[in-house]
Amino acid sequence: MPKHVEARLGKRARQFIWQDKPFSPTNAETLFAPIDRGGRQLLDLAARNEAITVKDLCEYLIPLGEGRKTWQLLQDALLSLRTPKSGPTLHPAMKINVFLQTWKTSVGAQVQMSPYIRNQLQAAQNYGLRAEGIAFSREILRDMPIWFHAYAAPRMRKMHFSASSKCLLNNHTVRRVRDAENAAACLEHPCHSSSPECGCPHCVDAKTALKCMWPHRCFERARDLLDTLPPKWDPRQHQREDDEHGLPDQFAPPASEEWVQFDTTCITSGPLENSLCIFTSGDPHNDAAPEKDGYDPVHLVTIATDGSCLHNGTAKAVAGAGGFASPGHPANFSLRLPVTLTQSNQCAELLALHQAASFDPPDTQLFIETDSRYAMNAVSKHLHRHEDEGFIGASNGTLIRDTVARLRAREHPTYLKWVKGHAGHERNERADQAAGAGAALQAPSIVDIRPASWLRVSGARVTAVTQALAYRAIRQRKLEKYTSRVRMAMNIELAQDAAEEAFGYRPSEGQIWRSQRSKDVSREVRCFLWMATHDAYMIGEKWLRPSVSVEKQARALCPSCGVLETLAHILTACDSPGQREIWGLVRTLWLKKNRTWYDPSLGLLLACCNRQFKSTSGHLRFGDARLYCILITESMHMIWKLRCERVIQNEGAPFDPAAVRNCWVAAMNRRVNLDCLMTNTKRYKKRATPPARVTATWANVLHDEDNLPPNWARRGGVLVGITRDQVARGVG
Hints:
single chain, Nucleotidyltransferase, domain 5, 6-stranded mixed sheet, 11 strands
């Protein structure tokens, strides 16, 4: 999509979102951000177009060998022709694929090139397209181009233009690593000598069939080229696949015991395109996998792991991980999660698995029991899909990747088994106690979860990339640079403090944002809550900006009170008839339901959807919580609407207090009857509200409730318990 079209569509989308306002209350990145971060999760058009380009790039790279289509070969040729003129002239046969070699193609604005191809090259550079993997099959290593090999030592570049190299290229038709390997292998023939007159079969064939004047020098140059490759990329060296076969597992448990062997296979095999990954990060690691010492475990260790989290899901969450093998065993552990990890039960289960795998004496085979299906599936059932997708969008993806790396680093096979938690399993119960003790520690534990360098990989395979996956990856990268608005962060902290004081727990930022999208809150009120939490309304000090005219700066003050008009002032402190009357009615109605009342503040109003009320026995009272949410959100939105009507339409003229109270009572009556209408299962099917929920919400606050029919929640026609007398004289 052309950039000017993208810009016009983006502008039109902003106009639709902000209803043709002359300014955007928040920046575009806030709209694109996820719900948990205070965004609206709208489509990022620029990221969507980038994702299409990335998908096109991946299509161009599949396949890289036989079966390549005409358009792909044409693009290869176009890229080959665009090498910088400032560099040395390269033989066309040397240039096989720009992403597998170190030669460059010009992408400057002065170079004539299709925008389609230019965008692909830019995307490859921005998102780290490169060959990436822990280890590769020799088939892939031999399919790599030998000239300008992407991971060869820099000294290789000096070898490309010698007479021997030219002979290898033109006469011996050496193009790939396998060709150089075959040429270098001629030096090992027992009859071969370094003399130009060598009569070994390879030299004779090279002289007669290939017209090579000095085969020995060409064979040596092929060997020199191979010697520039790091061990990870040299097919002549020991490779990981040499350790993947052959020796049986002499301590394998019976299949009837439901143990699952962890798959240590980490070899990238298949066609050459499987080696390419995109959305990589950091520098590539070319350390080869170490050779395994042997396969003779002497000791078997079974360890149970568990995780625990105090105040799970809140801002005060603290998690611990524990493992237990037997009393006094060195594999036992109890730790508190570092602050760099998400404090959740799932993270604790994964870290417990990681720490159990860290117990790796050279003569020990490990059996791990866990009561977490999530952790078990993360390193077994879903592992290959997550690895192919680069853990993009996976919850706790980094910790899963590090845990898998630790399991793969073990000398001997590891077996995993799921056990039911809290079912009298001795090791599991002791592991649960260890995890609880870890969560209760005063300070976080120091845990190094970084894998060994040869196990560090990143990125998604180009063969697994879809447009949706590419979009998630691009948005994930953008989100790493996203910073929350300062005013929003202050309001979130106000809401957390108020919720902690009123309800006894401190919700996380994500909980606050998700709760404001509750089904109990109407769509119009949700929008108001989002704007209020972001402090995005044009009120108060926003009118005092230098760009605002002096005449309009007077709007910064409340017309009734003469003080700076903030949202907190409008909702809780303004002297003009409105907020005082409405909160008085809310208090009167609420005290019929629950004897606990909190004076409204901005923080409490923003956190009202995170309400929690408990009975004397400690059980949550969901009906009370739902009614509180409805009363507070509807009332604060009405106060805001009345303020806007008074200031904008009525030019500051105050409302009659009785009219305000009548307006509120009518709104509550409409809301209770809307709840009754929503119980219609014939019309709303699965979306219908259960009648029991409506009854639990409005019980004890309805007018003449004792005389209502038993099924009033399905019939409607009920009124809230505020009498005309109370409306006329005012309450609260």
